[in-house]
Amino acid sequence: MNYTNRYIHGYNDRELQRLKDQAVTLEELLHAGTFYPAGSRVLEAGCGVGSQTLALAKRSPDARITSVDISGDSIAEARTRLEKAGGGNVEFLQADIRNLPFQTESFDHVFVCFVLEHLPEPAKALGRLKTWLKPGGTITVIEGDHGSTFFHPENKSSIEAIDCLVELQRRACGNALIGRELYPLLCGAGFTSVEVSPRFVYADSSRPEMVDGFTKKTFAAMIGGIREAAIASGLMSADLFDEGVRGLYRAAEEDGVFCYTFFKAVAFK
Q1: d(C-alpha 214, C-alpha 217), whole Å
Q2: How many angstroms separate the CA atoms of 49 and 16, rounded?
Q3: What do you get for the CA distance between the two ends of the chain, in Å?
Q4: pLDDT of 223-246, one tens digit each?
Q5: Distance (Å, whole) CA 133 – CA 184
Q6: Is 40 helix (H, G, I), strand (E, B) or coil?
Q7: Secondary structure of 111-133 in the HEC alphabet?
């Protein structure tokens, strides 16, 4: 099953910029604690346009990273971005992460970020990824959970707009609430010593870089990006959806507060 058409945010320039802003803003929060030793083989499953690849390559410069994605256009963009950044320890490959052209047990580590939420059968995908991992190797999985969002001032239309994204992703056979499920998913796929740590985003006016990078450029921009799909689906009227997006940007003002939780899991084969 091809899942390129299941990425409900689209592949336009606006989404590309949003992914760049998100990666820069969240690098320390999400990648803290992730380091791969010299010579180890690392599989990045579902690299997209390389937003997380840059951090992986920078933090583990002596590891050998293979980054794969099903989208040829995304691979091309990722390769260009890494070349500009001067990273030389990554090999890119266009392939479906559930049917990779590698021998079993080829990698010491697997890294998966913001991928499972878009897959119709994440448990099966984890099971397949496990076959390419060496005994004793690790898998790191990072996912968000839109149900963890709360903010001040609260706005009913904003909550409904977020719910629109959750529903649209469900209709595309994905799960925007998957962060809370990482522990049972990994255990069910046969991984051991599963440890999940919440990575909490908190943004108020005392943290202007987080307000700008996450509240505005990552989350509010993400919800705004599904406007046409939400309206066309009949989930919300244009007026209410626009009010909801304004409510999210309102949380970025001087007296506003925005909170969100990512979940990072590490487990062993």
Answers
A1: 6
A2: 8
A3: 26
A4: 999 999 999 999 999 999 999 999
A5: 19
A6: coil
A7: EEECCHHHCCCHHHHHHHHHHCE
Q: Yes or no: say if 111 and 34 are a contact pair by the CB < 8 Å rule.
A: yes
| Nearest CA-CA partner of 70 in 137, 119, 105 | 119
What residue spans of the chain are helical by DSSP H?
A: 13-31, 53-59, 72-85, 122-131, 156-171, 182-188, 208-210, 221-224, 227-232, 238-250
Q: Which of 6-10, 32-36, 146-150 has the lowest mean pLDDT?
A: 6-10
Residue with tokens 């995304």: 74
**Which residues does 65 contact at the CB level (< 8 Å), separation at least 6?**
36, 42, 43, 44, 53, 56, 57, 89, 90, 91
* Mean pLDDT, residues 96-111 taken together: 95
Task: Record the tokens describing residue 8, joined without a space.
Answer: 């409900």
Tokens 């244009």 belong to which residue? 238
| Residue 215: φ, ψ to 5° | -55, -50
Q: How confident is the model at residue 1 (pLDDT cuts 50, 70, 90)?
A: very low
d(CA 162, CA 155): 11
Sole residue written with tokens 């030793």: 37
Two structure tokens written together for 231: 């309206």
pLDDT at residue 10 in the model? 61
Confidence at residue 34, expressed as pLDDT on a 0 to 100 scale:
96
Let me know: does 29 contact 262? Beta carbons within 8 Å: yes
| Radius of gyration in angstroms for the set of CA atoms belonging to the chain, rounded to a whole number | 18
Domains of the chain: 4-268 (3.40.50.150)
**Whether pTM exceeds 0.90:** yes
Q: CA distances (Å), 11 to each of 177, 191, 250, in order?
A: 22, 33, 27
Residue 71: closest CA among 140, 141, 10, 143: 10
Residue 55 corresponds to which tokens in the numbers above?
A: 């951090």
